[in-house]
């Protein structure tokens, strides 16, 4: 009797997690790993911690995001999502991704300097320059997040970056969501720096979730 109950409990757990056959006659979940909200929340926080650690040199942020995004994709699909796979992705993405991170960092600093100068009143047409600066920062954030989401060890960074314009054209609203995710990270870091950990995890989850959302036709 005890053995039967244990088997039933194990079957229910496998059903809920998506790792095994369903108990009831119904289609399998689209994202079985996301069925347990608390577990997903914990995984997002874990990825936030790992991405923060890897991106401490700043230029490694794209590689950290790429590895975190791939980890969360595996998790929500109820595939093997060991932390060791995250570190393996970091090793493969880090060196080429550092160049992407360096270019993105330089562009962001230049745009921030332009915004600061525009606000100081030293430049003619400061209001226009400030708007252009914010648009440029939004574009940099979309490129970094989209490229990180498109990266894979097989493709590398060049194809991932080349895919960004097509991804944006195919889903303008999705690009706006990514800008909002990047803005969310900045606001959290401004309010309380430790919250950037949760913000980076949420940004990685946004890259996973945005392309798969239901869209109006």
TrEMBL record:
Transmembrane regions: 44-72, 93-112, 132-151, 172-190, 196-212
Organism of origin: Microbacterium saccharophilum
Biased composition (Basic and acidic residues): 1-16
Name of the protein described by the UniProt record: DUF624 domain-containing protein
Region span, Disordered: 1-28
Highest taxon of the lineage: Bacteria
This protein's UniProt keywords: Membrane, Transmembrane, Transmembrane helix
């Amino acid at each position: 009797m005890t053995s039967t109950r244990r088997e039933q409990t194990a079957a229910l757990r496998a059903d809920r997690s998506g790792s095994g056959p369903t108990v009831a006659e119904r289609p399998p979940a689209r994202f079985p790993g996301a069925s347990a909200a608390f577990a997903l929340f914990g995984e997002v926080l874990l990825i936030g911690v790992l991405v923060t650690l890897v991106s401490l040199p700043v230029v490694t942020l794209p590689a950290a995001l790429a590895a975190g995004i791939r980890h969360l994709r595996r998790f929500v699909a109820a595939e093997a999502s060991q932390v060791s796979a995250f570190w393996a992705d970091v090793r493969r993405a880090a060196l080429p991704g550092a160049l992407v991170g360096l270019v993105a960092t330089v562009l962001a600093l230049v745009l921030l300097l332009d915004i600061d100068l525009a606000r100081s009143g030293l430049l003619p047409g400061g209001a226009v320059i400030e708007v252009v600066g914010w648009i440029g920062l939004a574009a940099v954030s979309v490129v970094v997040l989209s490229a990180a989401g498109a990266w894979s060890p097989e493709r590398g960074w060049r194809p991932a970056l080349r895919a960004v314009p097509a991804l944006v054209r195919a889903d303008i609203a999705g690009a706006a969501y990514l800008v909002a995710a990047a803005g969310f990270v900045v606001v959290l870091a401004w309010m309380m720096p430790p919250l950037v950990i949760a913000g980076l995890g949420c940004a990685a989850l946004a890259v996973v979730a945005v392309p798969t959302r239901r869209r109006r036709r």
